[in-house]
Write a structure and sequence with these properties.
With about 200 residues, the chain is an alpha+beta fold. Among the domains are: about 60-125, Dna Ligase, domain 1; about 130-195. Helix content is about 35%, strand content about 20%. The protein has helices at about 15-25, 35-40, 45-55, 65-75, 100-110, 175-195; strands at about 5-10, 30, 60-65, 80-85, 95-100, 120-125, 130-135, 135-140, 145, 150-155, 165. The strands form four sheets. Strands 3-6-4-5 form a four-stranded antiparallel sheet, with helices on both faces. It has a three-stranded antiparallel sheet with strand order 7-10-11, covered by helices on one side. It has a two-stranded parallel ribbon with strand order 1-2. Helix 1 (about 15-25) links the parallel strand 1 and strand 2.
Length: about 200
């Protein structure tokens, strides 16, 4: 049976992300983005911990693996509505806005594959939120941000299906956004550099 020696992960598609850790555990060398960096970017709990560490504000959130934990989480973050989704997702898969306890119970009852390692993420829902995107490149010392893109639609429309404006027209804190993106980029870069020592937010 053929055994791969190296594999290239892809941070934009869900299947490579889901199997990257298993391949690495079997001794397959993952080319490009490290497993730890993939986890920080895509595991919403690790991402939230990184944001807290970098002192970048984001909506209140929590994790749950059953209905009792979910109900307690909703109460802790300020009540309904909330945004709920699996903690390791791309493209909004499995995401839903929950407006009351009945909807929450129905969602949790139908959720599949929920484990302590892959719990549900529950966020405080932001009304009339504006969504924007920014990409960044870094060499570990300098960060280059080509542009900030402002979505025409309200937050929640998948970026692949939305229209964007460059440069942004209504974002009044673009400089603050760029500073936050730079912090995240440098943190991920340092995670790449120290991945052998498993530098992760705790």
């Amino acid at each position: 049976m053929a055994r791969p020696v190296r594999s290239a992960g892809n941070v934009q598609k869900i299947t490579p992300l889901n199997i990257a850790r298993a391949l690495s555990d079997e001794g397959v060398k993952i080319l490009g983005t490290s497993i730890d960096s993939i986890d920080i970017a895509e595991d919403r709990d690790l991402f939230r911990k990184m944001m807290d560490l970098l002192e970048i504000p984001m909506p209140e959130s929590g994790m749950a693996t059953n209905i009792d934990e979910a109900l307690a989480c909703v109460k802790q973050i300020g009540g309904y509505p909330v945004m709920i989704r699996p903690s390791f997702v791309l493209g909004g898969r499995g995401m839903e806005v929950i407006y009351d306890e009945n909807m929450l119970r129905e969602y949790v009852a139908k959720a599949v594959g929920i484990t302590p390692d892959r719990p549900l993420l529950i966020d405080h829902f932001l009304h009339n939120a504006l969504e924007c995107e920014a990409d960044a490149l870094s060499d570990g010392e300098h960060v280059y941000i080509p542009s900030v893109m402002e979505h025409v639609e309200l937050a929640g429309v998948h970026s692949g299906d939305s229209a964007c404006i460059i440069p942004p027209e209504t974002i009044t804190e673009a400089n603050s956004l760029q500073a936050s993106v730079a912090k995240i980029n440098l943190f991920i870069f340092m995670t790449e550099r120290s991945s052998g020592r498993r530098r992760r937010p705790t």
